[in-house]
Amino acid sequence: MKIRVERDVLAEAVAWAARSLPARPPVPVLAGLLLKAEDGSLSLSGFDYEVSARVSVEVDVEEGGTVLVSGRLLADICRALPNRPVEISSDGVRVTVVCGSSRFTLHTLPVEEYPALPQMPVATGTVSAEVFASAVGQVAIAAGRDDTLPVLTGVRIEIEGDRVTLASTDRYRFAVREFLWKPEAADVSAVALVPAKTLLDTAKSLSGGDTVSLALAGAGAGEGLIGFEGAGRRTTTRLLEGDLPKYRTLFPTEFASVAVLETGPFVEAVKRVALVAERNTPVRLSFEQGVLTLEAGSSDDAQAVERVDARLEGEDISIAFNPAFLLEGLSAIDSPVAQLSFTTSTKPALLSGRPAIDAEADEAYKYLMMPVRLSG
Hints:
Elements: E1 2-5, H1 7-18, E2 32-38, E3 41-47, E4 51-58, E5 60-63, E6 65-70, H2 71-80, E7 86-91, E8 94-99, E9 102-107, E10 123-128, H3 129-140, E11 154-160, E12 163-169, E13 173-180, E14 182-183, E15 189-195, H4 196-205, E16 211-217, E17 225-230, E18 233-238, E19 257-262, H5 263-273, E20 283-288, E21 291-297, E22 303-309, E23 311-314, E24 317-321, H6 323-333, E25 337-342, E26 349-354, E27 365-369
Antiparallel strand pairs: 1-5, 1-7, 2-3, 2-6, 3-4, 4-18, 7-8, 8-9, 10-14, 10-16, 11-12, 11-15, 12-13, 13-27, 16-17, 17-18, 19-23, 19-25, 20-21, 20-24, 21-22, 25-26, 26-27
């Protein structure tokens, strides 16, 4: 193999393909990136039996070929190269990388031992890359991080015709986001449970393109695959087994109180008050007509109290939340105005966004939080 490529183009492609390589691969070849040069393009592929990544870039191909080299080492080298064209050539068991006055020689890994990458499933539909990245970011925050409960570490993707619903939970909160997309078939219906971390990394990495193509294989959330493609990049991941709890009945439709307040001042007040909240202790919110009082701490330790303007419809209410969960929800609604809807102080509260104080709440994104019970 012998190719010539611009340094920035190569560095970006290598970094993306190498991002999901395992730190401690079960077999040495899985630490490798597969480079294949042919017909004016270079494809770079990585695979760890769970997630595959493949990206193609245009290069000058003097001699085609396929080599397997250490992905992380190649990524480190590409990042450090001067801003000059890069020449990559292979000779037997060695690969040479030359850029300006820099020259690196790498040992190759055995290509014949590298596993075949899974085939990309047939495309199910497309969605704006920006919408997809935003939606995944809003929902992934509520996914669990406990690997002993793998089902809760996933994001549920439900497709019904031209509507996609993303949902996740860690048992203390639930995040749901709906958006429209362009399905390949008008009557498409599918459900998949995708690892949240993989989905979030993928959505971010594909946000540079115009659209993202989703491709589902297999029946539902079993032993299937899901694929994503956009901006010349393609990735697949295995789905998690199982499904999330039936969540739609958890979201209340009638409320005793609804509070509306500006998101910015609310966020800053929560951050300040939370400074005295020790780990796993809540921030208390007391809503009255025209004002919200935030409190944290105890009489035996540091205390904080702050008040912000709030509009309340319905009964006064005092409720407490984990401050980290509250702040993550406020960040996710991405709206100038926040709406908190309550049934009672011991039941989950619904957080949503509004474009303005007097506007209707945005129903596309919902964030449900369990309150923290206060002693006494």
